[in-house]
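Hi L.,

You mentioned the student needs an example of a multi-chain input paired with its predicted structure. This one should do, with 1068 residues in total across all chains.
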Amino acid sequence: MKVNGGVCKDPKAVTADDFFFSGLHKAGNTSNPVGSRVSAVNVVQIPGLNTLGISLARVDYAPRGINPPHTHPRATEILTVLEGTLLVGFVTSNTENRLFTKVLQKGDVFVFPIGLIHFQQNIGYGHAVAIAALSSQNPGVITIANAVFGSNPDIPTDVLAKAFQTHKPIIAGIQAKF
Amino acid sequence: MKVNGGVCKDPKAVTADDFFFSGLHKAGNTSNPVGSRVSAVNVVQIPGLNTLGISLARVDYAPRGINPPHTHPRATEILTVLEGTLLVGFVTSNTENRLFTKVLQKGDVFVFPIGLIHFQQNIGYGHAVAIAALSSQNPGVITIANAVFGSNPDIPTDVLAKAFQTHKPIIAGIQAKF
Amino acid sequence: MKVNGGVCKDPKAVTADDFFFSGLHKAGNTSNPVGSRVSAVNVVQIPGLNTLGISLARVDYAPRGINPPHTHPRATEILTVLEGTLLVGFVTSNTENRLFTKVLQKGDVFVFPIGLIHFQQNIGYGHAVAIAALSSQNPGVITIANAVFGSNPDIPTDVLAKAFQTHKPIIAGIQAKF
Amino acid sequence: MKVNGGVCKDPKAVTADDFFFSGLHKAGNTSNPVGSRVSAVNVVQIPGLNTLGISLARVDYAPRGINPPHTHPRATEILTVLEGTLLVGFVTSNTENRLFTKVLQKGDVFVFPIGLIHFQQNIGYGHAVAIAALSSQNPGVITIANAVFGSNPDIPTDVLAKAFQTHKPIIAGIQAKF
Amino acid sequence: MKVNGGVCKDPKAVTADDFFFSGLHKAGNTSNPVGSRVSAVNVVQIPGLNTLGISLARVDYAPRGINPPHTHPRATEILTVLEGTLLVGFVTSNTENRLFTKVLQKGDVFVFPIGLIHFQQNIGYGHAVAIAALSSQNPGVITIANAVFGSNPDIPTDVLAKAFQTHKPIIAGIQAKF
Amino acid sequence: MKVNGGVCKDPKAVTADDFFFSGLHKAGNTSNPVGSRVSAVNVVQIPGLNTLGISLARVDYAPRGINPPHTHPRATEILTVLEGTLLVGFVTSNTENRLFTKVLQKGDVFVFPIGLIHFQQNIGYGHAVAIAALSSQNPGVITIANAVFGSNPDIPTDVLAKAFQTHKPIIAGIQAKF
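Structure written out for the whole complex:
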């Protein structure tokens, strides 16, 4: 049997482990250019989440690390800071493009509405940790820089130069990093 | 303007605070008969969650404390243990009534599918803390004991005696506690 | 082909019998501890109901029989009394736990909203019969007593003793009946 | 407060009567050209059905009476015969236009999938009665003859003559009856 | 893998052609009794539309040609006139059966709400062309005349005679054309 | 009455004009930095679209003009080329970031799945025109360059420099254009 495109186990063979994941207390490796790491816990890690419309992620941030601007095409996110200090923000759609930002401390909660571009930055001196809950078992992530400048193959340079109102060599320079 | 039965602010008057909540790092008071406390963060606390289909709760457990059997009529729950050791479980529907249980440690995650009766028990020596994410901005909670034995007014004692296949004085004794 | 987890027949092989069920005029056997019988007509009995979001049940009640407190995790129920006199009720969620009750006669209709605990009791002198329509092709039933006191394996007795604020022997006595 | 376009009562003012309707045991008056009567019990009659996605109707049929071809734009229907003998049918969409029919006796159940044209005819010697459940609190009814030949104002006669591949006087004759 | 009843290609094997259709600029053949032709572009023509909830159609109309009264059981339609002059209309449900009509010129747009009976007629001197967008990847079409008078097998003539309040020979005459 | 946050007219006061829009045949003004113009026809222009889940837009492109990379958070788009030659593309989500592209001619149709970043570029010698249908009455548009580099206030320059792996003066230079 398959539901929602995923394989359903025989109900008699389902066990508690199909609803279980272990390890969200472990810090993710933030040794990368953006200085953050997202550890996802969704229907890939927990098959029993299929059709249930929710998932989690742990985010670790090195000092000055960022979770770069991205969207979740299928989920709203509600983020709780466990440690550290984060500057967070999201931008509304056209024609306003308003930026809503907030500095979050331990125990603070912030909502990023479905489909909007958002980011977090660790503005404290130490590491920061947050737990994000997402309103989909398979929320998807579109990291803007990777999708726009690092797609495979590249979006034509002249399209991006006109879109970002800059010169092709600058676009090509950014594309070369992804 | 109202959406989903809730009042919508004028978009120009919305601020980042409409998507923000502070205080989830504070321990709840567990001095009560069940030895646990649920601190909810839903559309009542964060108006910007309206229509977005997700919410949170922090649960504190005294040693041996329980979050008694309950259902969320509008949400699946995904629970992450931040501290302590919990025995958790949910029961499937008729005619199986299978109990799925698991002992959770720090960093463990468990899913309680929408509508099913579930519980947690602190089986460690110290306090325990968990963060629960729920797939509704207004998930609702039906605590079985309170709804069945503590409704206002009472469900007739003879109905409950027959339902639980016991004697009326036993039912009346339980009702008297709620 | 499969839709919604169920097997789809080849459309050319579908017949009117795939949308048909016979026998809802037959009284169910109420010789059991609760004195009632639910005869379900859902996607199991009528394959053509798949994806269509509705199903039925006939409920027979012996004198003083009850349909014990239960929930449908995926459906609202609208019940019509065909014969007899029923006391019916449902309980709202926390923190109100209000009981709404009504005595129903032949031709009366009552609604039990999705996810809420509800029951019926035959308070007349003869048999009673009702037709229930449910807003799901597969509504599910969680009979509270069976799920809480009769799960397989048992919910730990100390969890239930604390939840129902009573002594373990009383819990164990109820568990022994299921 | 309003939800789904309907006025919400103050929750404290809600009573069991908001979930209740009386009178579905009474026969409808079938003294009309089609020889049937539909008595609807939906969100108009039971305000508490709002957002709950289900409703009912009782249908009475005089001998040879019909419930003429119609669709429910927002609901699947599941019909139970309480008395009498009905010929029922529905027609699939283009390009098959297959007619599925069945003769139903007391206790028989039949499903009319959402949006499809369907009808019932009393082919027995006495009155017939059925209960229909519908998967919407406000299912809507489009009676084909009334919508096509009895709209206000009329659909142009030449449009209908071409659609039904007949002459304008025949169309005009049918329009004159509605 | 299958989603929504359709076969899912291996994601690695998906190409841009799975989201592509060619030929909507070609006029359809209107040499038929109603003088119109609908060229559909839905999930059958574009497999990548599966689960995405939208589709298109091109409609060509000979002079005086009609797109006869029909419903889409799963879609609202929004129609744009590219060439010519169309009289369009839809009829509301019981008990109003109001006809809303409008004469459309090139560049005009009109909406036919989900499930309602609607039609278009070319009232200009030349050919007319429109693009219709529909809110389902598989909207379905029920052409009223074909479903009611041309089903396979026929709806009984006496049912239709009573429904349309006319004589059986008139019904039989219409049935003979389909 | 309000439904979906929008004001509902009294049904008796609704007219055909509530479902009508005029002017989609008029070319939009493309004298702007990107060389394109989107003329939207959604629930703002046609109040009768409320709750119906579909809308339109006309897009005009000057030679070499682009509709820059953007997402619709609430809609899939299906685009039909009426005139000219377009290079179109969309990028999948992490971790693939695959670019699907196609050159479209008159009469060609292409699908941009909900939430994904997509663009069009006029690669012909003359103007180009397309009609886009969207699976929401209020699809929303997030133009990536405007949201990321032109928000009000700006996203901190150091966040963007790290996200795009470039130097702050380059970021500041792009921000200055928006």
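You could point out the following to them. The two ends of chain F are 40 Å apart (CA to CA). Chains F and C do not touch (no CB pair under 8 Å).

Best wishes,
N.
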